[in-house]
Amino acid sequence: IISTGNIVNVVANDDKIVLLTGSGLIINLPGDPIFGQQLIIKDGAGTAASNLVTINPPSGITIDGSSVVVMGQNYQSFTFMWNGTEWNII
After folding, report:
1. Residue 31's Cα: distance from chain center in Å?
2. Rounded to an integer, what distance in angstroms lies between the CA atom of residue 6 and that of residue 24?
3. What pLDDT is attached to residue 31?
4. CA geometry: angle at 88 spanning 20 and 43, to 5°?
5. Residue (of 70, 77, 22, 71) closest to 47 by Cα position
6. Is the per-residue pLDDT at 86 higher than 90?
7. Judging by beta carbons within 10 Å of its beta carbon (0-12, 13-18, 19+), is residue 53 exposed, middle or buried?
8. What are 11-69's pLDDT values in tens digits?
9. Whole-angstrom distance, CA of residue 41 vs CA of residue 55
10. Measuring CA to CA, which residue among 61, 3, 48, 57 is closest to residue 22?
11. Are 64 and 87 in contact, with CB atoms under 8 Å apart?
């Protein structure tokens, strides 16, 4: 997915998201991932340092124990993997 919107709702079959917007973004991770599913999220616009990207798992699910992850470096990317219980950053 190449996104220019402010809110991205990731679905189970998405695997790569490149963000091409200059405004703050919210990424909502799926609540029904498949065990071992990987997801790459990339700040393709290079504006995350001044326009933070907030990555949210669904309610009751965490990312490495946290309820939210914030991308704040230009051109930064994260790779996530679903371990059956939570999302891990790998």
Report:
1. 13
2. 7
3. 84
4. 10
5. 22
6. yes
7. buried
8. 888 999 998 876 778 999 998 888 999 999 999 999 999 999 999 999 999 999 999 99
9. 9
10. 48
11. yes
CA distance from start to end of the chain = 20
Residues in the chain: 90
Tell me: pLDDT of 4 over 70. Answer: no
| CA angle in degrees (0–180, nearest 5) for 65-66-70 | 140
- The 10 Å Cβ neighbour count of residue 58 is 13
The pLDDT of residue 75: 96
**Confidence grade of residue 1 (pLDDT, cut at 50, 70, 90):** low
CA atoms within 13 A on the CB side of 27: 32
